[in-house]
Request: fold
Amino acid sequence: MKFGKLIGLVGIVALVYLLWLVRQVLLLAFAAIAFATVINKLVQQLQKLSIPRGLAVAIALLSIGATLVGTGWLVLPALIDRIPEYTFLSEQGIERVQQWYNHLAGIVPGDALAATELGDLLPQLARMSPTWVGRLVTIFAGSLDFVINFLLVLATTIMLLANPAAYRRVLLVIFPKFYRPRADAILTLCEQALAGWAVGILFNMTVITVCSAIGLAIIGVPLPVVNAVIAGLLTFIPTIGPFLSVLPPMLMALAIQPWMAIAVLILYFAIQQIEGTVLTPLVMKKQVSLLPAITLIAQVICAIFFGLLGLFLALPIVVVTQVWAKELLVKDILNQWPAPSHRPTRWISAKRKALESY
Reply:
């Protein structure tokens, strides 16, 4: 290997290592860009009403902030204070679970279950659980890293919304001059894909929230609205979110009657089937198409390398990556790959002229 190539290889390895060291910052930057892109579509709609851009940005951010604060005000107190009251962690729930256990112990042959007294264990869990949940939420909310990351994303999002065109021009500088018009077109496609995905996921979240609230109220599960809001919010995390959303209402239903827990499981399964087979194809058909297997693999990879934040941003990352792979890798490289009989220099020259025509 020549010395120049060796230096280039070392430089690439060093660059990759440097990017790996700052991966969390890059992920936060991507989060800010994704949020700013989606919010900018709302700002543009407000600008069509003859509202100045600065005021439109303020209205959009305040509206989103008020919605998030209102949702948190509705959900968090119930999670901390009231869910233990309505689950098997309450005294009434403990007694009911103990009765079911004793009944099961009488059915099972022998004394395999008779020696265990759940009444000695569950009261301790009942006393510990609310305190544990409260401490967990307090630690998470009071974490310095969480606050700093949140403020960083918020400040970056606001700055991007203030003058998105300037930051877009800076991003285009990293591409060769002849490819910048094409890269600008791909960025526009990424904006459209992110906006379409956001509209689709918000629609799905709304429908799932309404359907869950109605179904849980009919079944008789406590706190149907709170559980429905949790189900709607966790729709943001496909595959894993629906599994997590069914746990609180099932625990509440189990503390009342076992058949109610089964009814809740059937209800959520039916809602997710409708969402997966009807809503998502209907809404995403003209916006962005995400294959389930690729989505799941992307979530696992992002969670392994980037943690919880990567899990939340897995879908936007897949949406943007899919656009760049389709436009740059497939259309501009693989579909234009020269035949062996063609001279590479001719192909490069023709390709450059084609890209300059964009």
Summary: The chain has 15 helices and no strands.
